[in-house]
Amino acid sequence: MKFIIVRDRLLDALNHVMKAVSGKTTIPILTGIKIDVTKDGVTLTGSDTDITIQTFIPAEEDAKQNVTIVESGSIVLQARMFNEIVRKLPTNEVEIQVTNEVQTHIRSGKSIFHLIASDANEYPLLPNINQDASFPMPADLLKSMIRETVFAVAVTESRPVLTGVNWIIKDQSLICVATDSHRLARRKAKMEQVQEDYDVVIPGKSLNELNKILENTNTPVEIVITEQQVLFKTDNVLFFSRLLEGNYPDTDRLIPNEFQTTMKINGKELLQAIDRASLLARGNSHNVVRLETLSEESIEISSNSPEIGKVQEEISLDLCEGEQLKISFSAKYMMEALKAIGEDHVIVQFTGAMRPFILRSLEDDTILQLIVPIRTN
Amino acid sequence: MKFIIVRDRLLDALNHVMKAVSGKTTIPILTGIKIDVTKDGVTLTGSDTDITIQTFIPAEEDAKQNVTIVESGSIVLQARMFNEIVRKLPTNEVEIQVTNEVQTHIRSGKSIFHLIASDANEYPLLPNINQDASFPMPADLLKSMIRETVFAVAVTESRPVLTGVNWIIKDQSLICVATDSHRLARRKAKMEQVQEDYDVVIPGKSLNELNKILENTNTPVEIVITEQQVLFKTDNVLFFSRLLEGNYPDTDRLIPNEFQTTMKINGKELLQAIDRASLLARGNSHNVVRLETLSEESIEISSNSPEIGKVQEEISLDLCEGEQLKISFSAKYMMEALKAIGEDHVIVQFTGAMRPFILRSLEDDTILQLIVPIRTN
């Protein structure tokens, strides 16, 4: 195996596959990156068994020569070391050559690294996925579906299925739902080019890594869903994730549809007031802040910490309908929900101090956030 | 006590004094910041007993009103909480008022914080320093004297005096020396306005914090050295540090003055080559890289790690005089020394593979770095 490659292009590709390489794997070969060289270009693969990322660097791209192939072949190089070496090489031209099966020589300028590699045959095969039934989704839409739901997955493993986001595709629309049973995030989108129905749970960690790789453009990502795996395909990147097993709870029945109090409020003002109130809420175990209606035109956000002090702040409402209210909730959950909505005009609807309440955007009815209040004395 | 202050000016001052506040103090009052309000302005004080920083915010500055004093007084507020609150306040106008001796009210826009403060009388007094015998040093010179020496102080406490930088003022020149007994950094400067001689050891930590506060301008900093304390004074900041007790070793005799091999080399090229070589040096305990003369015109930097591989790189010399040489040293020490010199043209002088070697700048004879080599097989 021998090829000469443009360092910056190799670094870009490495940045992607490194996201799948874990320092904590129990399978030694997975601390490495597999490099496959054919006459068409160079393929890099990284995996932690849950996530597998493969990037392809074409020999030629946009009439530019990325790679000069001298001899094809495959090898596995220790991922972190290889990544750091490439990062620090002195010139933008890198020659990589394998002799005696595993002796790898990396040359750049007057610098030569000799690394002991591993046999590519020891590297696990890619998940075997039939790619016939794929459907497209614009990358920017996919990114916002992830961003607006994934933060609400459970972080503990007591119910593993809740550490993922439930993707339900039905009647040509996609519903993403995440809940840790104290709050819930839901996002809907029309999916006109999908033929089949699906109901799967994608690990939150996979979606977070996918979000980092995708660019915020409307370039379509091809999605293939099978029984145990999901595959996201962009031009030069294949992103595989295993699916979570188990039945995701039916969340529709958790969402209230009758309300006693409805407020229209500036979401950014509310977010900042809760951020301030949370400073004094750190002393209490659940980071609790209080919301209280003062009139039909204003609410008060407050919090206190017995030994440190208290904070209170009045916020004007655009509208308030229904009953007066005093309610307590987690500042963290409320801030994350408001950030996910990310709009100036937010509707918050309550069904009393002890029942879950919901947040929606005035402009966009595809997003819904639900928070379970906290009982205080 | 009551005053109204411009938030941004308060934040600047807080940024400075926070550098002296430690989370780990055993003296509870020192987790706080003392605020003293007089008709002239507001003074903030933070301290961890080793370092004390005091900043003054004048009521008026450059014909701009920073503070409106309503009632003078003093109070101690929990430092982190106060800092975070000020950072997150909604408007640039902040009113701070104390009622019932310790009830502190911070108002900004529609937000009101009520904090329980501590009595300012419990806060320790500033070190009592006679400021008659001060001398000036430009801030940028002071910063480079710190930057070029402080990294070489000992990090372990086995010989506490080595955790500081030795400042010797004699014959109207200042010599700063730091050593951890494996390497040494020395920097000299002319000090024409100093009247007395001094020989003190300033804690490395204090100098690092001072360096963060000073701006890189030629504005003079007034320095006062007493038996137990040193004080650095700028326009609105007083920076006190305790001095370390104990005799600093005489380092002059460690510095060789006869050499067997002298090289002139591009310091940045050498730094980058050692940075690359150090990637493979992590496996070995002392992060060892090797330097070997190849000819009168070039050297090789190399390193190896038995299970991972090896690296070698040739570097051209501007000049090489004297004997051929093979020597091993810590990559970290060498990189820090080259960064401190920070010049393209560096002179490296050796007295054989087992003896300390020195690095100097070709352009500037005030800086000297010494490194003790590492014995390898």
Give the gist of this structure.
The structure is a homodimer of 377-residue chains. Helix content of chain A is 17%, strand content 44%.
Provide structural commentary.
The structure is a homodimer of 377-residue chains. With 377 residues, the first copy, chain A, is of the alpha+beta class. Chain A folds into 3 domains: 2-122, DNA Polymerase III, subunit A, domain 2 (DNA Polymerase III, Chain A, domain 2, Roll); 134-252, DNA Polymerase III, subunit A, domain 2 (DNA Polymerase III, Chain A, domain 2, Roll); 255-371, Proliferating Cell Nuclear Antigen. Chain A is 17% helix and 44% strand. Chain A contains 6 helices and 28 strands. Chain A has helices at 7-18, 79-88, 139-147, 204-213, 267-279, 331-341; strands at residues 2-6, 32-38, 41-47, 51-58, 60-61, 64-65, 67-71, 73-78, 93-99, 103-108, 111-116, 134-138, 164-170, 173-179, 183-190, 198-203, 220-225, 229-233, 237-242, 261-266, 288-293, 298-305, 309-316, 319-322, 326-330, 345-350, 357-361, 367-371. In chain A, the strands form 5 sheets. A 9-stranded antiparallel β-sheet of chain A has the order 16-13-14-15-28-27-26-20-24. In chain A, helix 5 runs antiparallel to helix 6. The termini of chain A are far apart. The relative contact order of chain A is 0.11. The model of chain A has no long low-confidence stretch (mean pLDDT 94). At the A-B interface, helix 2, strand 11, helix 5 and strand 23 of A face helix 2, strand 11, helix 5 and strand 23 of B.
